[in-house]
Design a protein that fits this description.
Helix content: 40-55%
Structural class: mainly alpha
Low-confidence stretches: 229-233, 237-247, 359-364
Number of domains: 2
Strand content: under 5%
Strand order of the largest sheet: 1-2
Number of helices: 12
Radius of gyration: 24 Å
Mean pLDDT: 80
Distance between the termini: 17 Å
């Protein structure tokens, strides 16, 4: 916790705007996105998603994007498919963290302020929409690479044919990553702690990492990211920003909208990570998920202790820890080995070299609770 300080930027997160701001009016002013601007919106949303998972409110991160407020009115089929699956993924992430109930206010802000996370949209409808868009982009990629079907011409995304292939490929990589990222959370939320049940997750993580690698090579295709104003911290000029060249916010984003919509957010200085940092954080999360999938290989209580200690050294964030807890305890079954109490009994007998049944059941229950809290909250 930090003390509240007058004139600190974090105190402005819920300030009232002198002029009422309407999402409808801001959306009406937006012109259709170019392909480079569309890629920029996708990359900026990835950065906002990570900033949200890292503890900022959803209103100051994801919902600074105007398109998320009214996804049903998005004209671009590509952007609509992207936004819908992004919001569905946010719904799964939020629910996993809430169900695990490990977070403090500094870890995660669970309030969603009545924002629509597309709860009414089914997974099947979301995927059907995404599949149709990906099919269209795949046809455009084939046509741009000279491998399209003869006699069948697909409309191009933009006028510069020399850039058509790399731009379509960049969009396709981002949509495919979103599909894999959603499926990873969906499977982790429903999987049992055994190698067979988690096998699809391993394939999805591998696929997502491959798409992230391709995305990292196409970041330059997006419109330039905004350059933040750096405050001058020299004595006597604490609150005067440096005069430097800046670029406007990414098209379709507005930080002012959060001032009206989120007045009860946490009093902290909101910093959206850069696009590069956002994708690097997603890669870190996927690598941690890969390690998490090895937990069913722990056959003894000692193996489990060693796994939890090693996993803690990776400094996992609240999302990874939440999935680990939910995966560890399902229906009184600890990692597929039955109740944790039975696992502790077996460990006690091995340590004591005793074959006499242990009757200290109360001690084992207390030890079970202490073990779970210690290894999932740190």
């Amino acid at each position: 916790m930090s003390a509240l300080e007058l004139m600190d930027p974090k105190m402005d997160s819920g300030m009232n705007s002198t002029t009422p701001i309407s999402v409808d009016s801001l959306l009406e002013k937006l012109t259709p996105l170019t392909v480079s601007e569309l890629i920029a919106v996708m990359d900026e949303l990835a950065a906002c998603e990570i900033s949200w998972v890292n503890g900022h409110s959803i209103g100051h991160t994801l919902f600074t994007c105007l398109y998320l407020h009214q996804p049903q009115k998005i004209a671009s089929p590509i952007l609509k498919a992207f936004v819908d699956i992004l919001l569905k993924t946010a719904q799964l992430i939020r629910q996993a963290i809430i169900d695990a109930d490990l977070y403090e206010d500094e870890d995660f802000f669970s309030g969603k302020f009545n924002f629509d996370l597309r709860e009414e949209m089914s997974k099947e409808d979301c995927f059907a929409q995404l599949h149709a868009v990906c099919e269209r982009l795949e046809a455009q990629v084939l046509q741009a690479s000279g491998k399209g079907k003869s006699g069948e011409e697909v409309p191009t995304l933009q006028d510069d044919l020399s850039k058509e292939l790399e731009l379509c490929s960049a969009l396709l990589d981002r949509l495919r990553f979103r599909k894999a990222w959603f499926n990873i959370h969906f499977h982790l939320a429903t999987a049992k702690p055994n190698a067979t049940s988690l096998k699809p997750c391993a394939k999805l993580i591998s696929s997502a990492l491959q798409h992230l690698n391709l995305i990292s090579h196409s970041l330059q295709l997006a419109d330039p990211a905004p350059i933040p104003v750096v405050p001058d911290l020299t004595p006597g000029a604490q609150h005067k920003p440096k005069t430097s060249a800046t670029t406007p916010l990414t098209k379709g984003f507005s930080t002012d909208i959060a001032k009206n919509l989120v007045s009860s957010g946490p009093p902290r200085d909101v910093r959206i990570v850069t696009r590069e940092e956002g994708y690097a954080s997603l890669q870190t999360l996927l690598n941690q998920f890969n390690v998490l999938l090895n937990v069913p290989s722990c056959l003894t209580f000692e193996d489990i202790q060693l796994f939890f200690r090693s996993f803690s050294l990776m400094n996992p964030n609240i999302l990874t820890r939440s999935h680990l807890l939910l995966l560890s305890q399902t229906d009184q079954d600890f990692l597929g080995h039955g109740p944790l109490v039975d696992l502790l009994k077996d460990s006690f007998h091995r340590v004591c070299s005793s074959t006499i049944p242990h009757t200290g059941f109360l001690f084992l229950l207390v030890f079970e609770q202490a073990f779970t809290q210690r290894h999932t909250k740190h």
